[in-house]
């Protein structure tokens, strides 16, 4: 399956590490993959800026450059800067630092990520009112859940996006995964064609199906947020691996 593949899009949390713990052997596997493929690291993480994600990977012993990471927050900021206007940010205080050069007025967009404690009624109602006044809903990501520090699944920002869509009758523009444009931008970063790239992820919908819909090969790993119920969703990955390390058997 990988015979004609020249590049890999690697999801981070759930593929290379789980929360703060690297997948055993993943650092060495990554080194071997980088000898064979172009690699870009993709993430829907919206709680922290790319620089923080990069530092975390370095501290875990992974070898990469910061500009090889393509995040949902980066894509969202790029979109707003190209379109112009201001934004109301439903994000964590840390993630907001990535948007310091985006004006807060006029509110043309409501940007939603995993805001954690900032998902208060007051903040959600502000977002609701801005949207009702004409602001566009921008979902930096629309994931359902993620694997948390206690080893259990936790609610992600998708539920809050859907709640605002329901209340306002308006549909969010999804910038991160599973947006087709997100994957195509990441592929363009490599200088490759979609059919020359495979995406490896632990989310069968956002990672695998999202990539396959954009013309990439889709590889699912049984780590991170993966559950056996994922295999009952009617999505057929091109390859299913016990972990990222097993891909070495196919190259």
Tags for this entry?
2 domains; Rossmann fold; 4-stranded parallel beta sheet; alpha/beta; 14 strands; globular; 22% strand; 6-stranded parallel beta sheet; single chain; 8 helices; 251 residues
Map the helices and strands.
Blueprint (H helix, E strand, L loop, with lengths): L6 E5 L5 E2 L2 E2 L3 H11 L1 E6 L6 H10 L9 E3 H12 L2 E5 L2 H4 L10 E6 L8 H12 L3 E4 L5 E3 L5 E3 L2 H11 L4 E2 L5 H11 L6 E5 L2 H10 L3 E5 L17 E3 L10
Parallel strand pairs: 1-4, 1-12, 4-5, 6-7, 7-8, 8-11, 12-13, 13-14
Antiparallel strand pairs: 2-3, 9-10
Helix pairs in contact: 5-6
Mean pLDDT comes to 95
What would CATH call the class of the largest domain?
A: Alpha Beta
**Radius of gyration, taken over Cα atoms and rounded to an integer in Å:** 18 Å
Write down the secondary-structure element order. EEEHEHEHEHEHEEEHEHEHEE
Overview of the molecule:
- By secondary structure, this protein is of the alpha/beta class.
- It has helices at residues 26-36, 50-59, 72-83, 93-96, 121-132, 158-168, 180-190, 204-213, and strands spanning 7-11, 17-18, 21-22, 38-43, 69-71, 86-90, 107-112, 136-139, 145-147, 153-155, 173-174, 197-201, 217-221, 239-241.
- It folds into two domains: 7-44 and 177-250, 3-Layer(aba) Sandwich (Rossmann fold); 84-174, Rossmann fold (3-Layer(aba) Sandwich).
- A six-stranded parallel sheet has the order 5-4-1-12-13-14, sandwiched between helices.
- Helix 5 crosses helix 6.
- The longest helix is centred in the N-terminal third of the chain and has 12 residues, at 72-83.
- It starts with 6 loop residues before the first strand and ends in a 10-residue tail after the last strand.
């Amino acid at each position: 399956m990988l015979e004609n593949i020249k590049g890999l899009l690697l999801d981070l949390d759930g593929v290379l590490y789980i929360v703060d713990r690297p997948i055993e052997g993943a650092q060495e596997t990554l080194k071997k993959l980088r000898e064979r493929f172009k690699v870009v690291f993709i993430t829907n993480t919206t709680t922290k800026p790319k620089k923080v994600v990069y530092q975390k990977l370095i501290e875990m012993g992974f070898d990469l450059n910061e500009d090889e990471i393509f995040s949902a927050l980066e894509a969202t900021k790029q979109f707003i800067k190209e379109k112009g206007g201001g934004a109301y940010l439903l994000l964590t205080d840390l993630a907001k630092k990535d948007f310091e050069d985006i004006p807060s007025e006029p509110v043309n967009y409501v940007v939603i990520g995993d805001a954690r404690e900032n998902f208060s009624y007051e903040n959600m109602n502000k977002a609701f009112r801005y949207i009702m006044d004409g602001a566009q809903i921008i979902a930096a990501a629309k994931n359902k859940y993620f694997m948390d520090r206690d080893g259990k699944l936790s609610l992600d920002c998708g539920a809050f996006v859907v709640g605002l869509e329901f209340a306002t009758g308006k549909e969010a523009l999804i910038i991160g995964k599973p947006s087709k444009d997100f994957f195509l931008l990441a592929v363009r970063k490599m200088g490759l064609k979609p059919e020359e790239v495979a995406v490896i992820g632990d989310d069968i919908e956002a990672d695998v199906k999202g990539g396959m819909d954009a013309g990439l090969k889709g590889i699912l790993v049984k780590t991170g947020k993966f559950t056996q119920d994922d295999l009952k969703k009617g999505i057929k990955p091109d390859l299913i691996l016990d972990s990222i390390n097993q891909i070495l058997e196919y190259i």
